[in-house]
Amino acid sequence: MLQVDLQGGFGEKGRTSIVVGDGSTRVMLDAGIKVGATGGEYYPLLAHPVSEIDALFISHAHEDHIGALCHLLRQGYAGPIYMTEETHTEMPATLAQYADAADLADFPPLAKQIRLFRPGETLAVGALNVATGASGHVVGGVWFSVEGAGQRIVYSADIVPESAVFPMQPLPACDLLVLDASYGADPIPGAERARQIGEWVAGYADGCLLPTPLSGRSLELIAAIGVPFAIEAGMRTALSAQILAPDAVHRDRVEVLSERLNVAHDWTVGEPLPACPLLVHDGMGVAGPSRPALEAAETAAFPILLSGHLPAGSPGARLVDEGKAAWIRMPTHPTLPENIALWEAAGRPRLIGHSCDAAALDALRQHIPALMTGARTGDTYQINEETIHAHSDFQ
């Protein structure tokens, strides 16, 4: 039988990680950190010594899915690390911002450990087959399906079924679905949110600040903005590579995004804020150019729009709480209708939601009765024929 250990991101947002095993082989899917947490809550709660993990798979290069990689290497993980080429390209920038500096210096990911694959490939680890598919969340982002012992567990990681920019491959039918529940029961579709953001930005076409992750939401915002804009100069190469990555962006969006990026102005930290919308990374103001940019914008009473998750205590959260910044969600996770459709297409399996708090899970269960709202980091679930049993044996 298959077993899944919930190591992070359950009943909470951040440090996303699970382990799936069949009793003889174990694969770890993602190794994130939890922004705003300290001590043991910053990293995944490991169910097993790293020596018992046969392979590590990374879904994409956002900090809540890859930020603990060097931490695992410090503990002695020496096995293969599977990721797409795009994730591998973006990994150094994320680790530079979110990994412990000493861990990154002493235990960087080794080239000999990296195993590259393309979305859509299936990889064998022992008796387990790990299928992958494009997630629609970022360039090179994937979901994972682990099959063994006649059972299948699907871990969505972060997904966007109806992204205006990134294609997503359908999830397979499964016995247990570990689903991106970041938005709980939010029913508003991405197209409507994009329209709202476009209108807000148009109202501040003479100057506003748009903090955003370097990958994923940046291209969603560029697609939504209909006025000239600027970008932090260091973003240009990465954004261009994302747009032109093979099969990573909807074909009808490649030319539009390329043209908009080509005419965007370059801005560097320390320069005056420009007289146009400005995209800077990251999206929370915790690291990267957005931190000094937000400080400058606050001092100058420059309009600010945040559009994603804001951990408590982050600069972005503080500015919104104090009424110094606006917030409109740009969906980079599934909305309620999308999650219902995903669950039905997967055969209405038992469901565990990741990347949200208990209140969001309770709200989602009103629409998806198979959702196990009590699943928390530290729990273990076993699939036994027609039932799923929970217990916790974490150390």
UniProtKB/TrEMBL annotation:
One Pfam family per UniProt: Lactamase_B
Domain Metallo-beta-lactamase: start-end pairs: 14-204
SUPFAM superfamilies hit by this protein: Metallo-hydrolase/oxidoreductase
Cross-referenced Gene3D superfamilies: Ribonuclease Z/Hydroxyacylglutathione hydrolase-like
Lineage top rank: taxon: Bacteria
InterPro entries on file: MBL, Metallo-B-lactamas, RibonucZ/Hydroxyglut_hydro
UniProt protein name: MBL fold metallo-hydrolase
Organism: Nitratireductor kimnyeongensis
